[in-house]
Amino acid sequence: MELGLKDRIALVTGASKGIGKAIALELAGEGCRLAICARGAEELEKVRVIAEGKGVRCVARRADVTDPKELKAFVHDVERTFGALDILVNNAGGALPGRFEQVNDEGLIHDYEVKVLSQVRFVRATLHLLAKSHAPRVININAIPGRVAFPQLFATTVNRAACHALNKTLAIELAPKGILVNSINIGSVVTPQWENIRNRLAPGMPMEEFTAERARGIPLGRFGTPEEVSGLVAFLASDRASYITGASIDVGGGSGMHV
C-alpha cells in the first residue's frame, strides 16, 4: 500500500527505544524526514544513524518532555531545520506501577507531566507549524488503562484517562484547521518498560515467567511487538486516513473489556 508519506516531516517523542524507536524507523522507511527526542542521548543517536541510513534527514536532540524549556528548544530546532511540520507523534511515556496506596503525590504528578502535560505542550508548541501543513496529523500513543481501570496501574489509569479526554477534545477543537488527532492505545507490548513493571509488581519473578503469566490474560495469548504499533501510526499519518479524527484504537491483542 502506497501511503504517500515521502518527504513529510515527522516529530516523534520518546524515540530512543521501544515503540518510539519503531515509530521513527517506520516513518523513515516511508520517506519521512524526522525530528526525534528522548532523554537518552546515546541511544537516540543510534536511532538517528539508522534513520539516516534509510536515506532521510533526521534531527535528534536530547530533551526531557517534562521540561518546558527543553521542549521549546527542540521544537525551535525543528522549525529552524525544516521550517515545517506535518506529523506530531506524542509517544513519550513511562511505567509507574502501583496501587492507590503505593503511589505518592510526587509520583502521580510526575506521571501526569510525562503523560498528559507533554502532549498538551507539544501540541501548543507545534500548532503554528501543523496549521500550515496540507496534511497535519497528531497521533497520541496512549494506553488501554484509562479506558479500563487497572487498580495495579493506578497512575496510568488516572492519567491516561485524561489523555483520552484530551485526544477527543483536541480532535474537535482542531478539526476546523484540518488537523487530525487520533489515539493509539497500547496493551502488553514488548518494550524495556516491562523490566520496571516486573520489578514493582512481581520483584524476584524471572522476566520470562512474568511475561508468560501476563500473556495468559490476553485473548490472543501473546505480547505485541513495537512494529505492530508503528504500522498503525504510519497509516494514521497517511492520506488513507484523511477522514479519521478523534479515533481511539486499541493495540492490545484483545485486552480491555470495554465497549
Provide an overview of this structure.
There is one protein chain. The protein is of the alpha/beta class and 259 residues long. The chain has a single domain (9-251), classed as Rossmann fold (3-Layer(aba) Sandwich). Helices cover 44% and strands 14% of the residues. The chain has helices at 18-29, 41-52, 68-82, 105-130, 154-174, 193-201, 207-215, 227-237; strands spanning 9-12, 33-38, 58-62, 87-90, 137-143, 180-186, 248-251. A 7-stranded parallel β-sheet has the order 3-2-1-4-5-6-7, with helices on both faces. The longest helix has 26 residues, at 105-130. It is globular.
Offer a few descriptive terms.
single chain, 259 residues, alpha/beta, Rossmann fold, seven-stranded parallel beta sheet, 8 helices
